[in-house]
């Protein structure tokens, strides 16, 4: 666990353009930046990137064994990190409704598995992976 100061900028650098840095949410929040263009009152386009990192506890059964030692991931920690680069289309059909369409590619992906003592068992970089998504919000 650590502390990471994240500089945040919310800058409207032209009439219909914004630049945001700091916490950027693709599917999960991460640290990054995005640029947005407000085409009309109801439609906006954007692009950006974010560094995302997740950790999760492994338990109940061994899934991965270290090839040269008698260690498994049982009770250990898994972690994943990646940098999604994305473009999005935001549509606001009503004042209380927003629909986001999102597409991009996740690069720099890494998956790491550690045993219960924090020793690395496996560490694997993976190829870029495309993604698409949709998010809808209705505010009451």
Characterization of this structure:
The chain has 140 residues and is mainly β. The protein has one domain. It is built from no helices and 8 strands. Strands 1, 2, 3, 4, 5, 6, 7 and 8 form an 8-stranded antiparallel β-sheet that branches. Strand 5 and strand 6 form a beta hairpin.
Order of helices and strands: EEEEEEEE
The largest β sheet comes out as: 8 strands, antiparallel
Q: Beta-strand percentage? A: over 45%
Broad shape: elongated
Overall mean confidence score, pLDDT: 88
Please tally the β strands and state the result. 8
How much helix, percentage-wise, in residues?
A: under 10%
Radius of gyration, whole Å: 19 Å
In short:
This protein has 140 residues and is mainly beta. 0% of the residues lie in helices and 66% in strands. The relative contact order is 0.17.
Question: How would you describe this structure in keywords?
Answer:
66% strand; mainly beta; 140 residues; elongated; 8 strands
SSE inventory with pairings:
Blueprint: E1 9-14, E2 17-25, E3 29-38, E4 43-57, E5 77-94, E6 97-114, E7 120-126, E8 129-138
Antiparallel strand pairs: 1-2, 2-3, 3-4, 4-5, 5-6, 6-7, 6-8
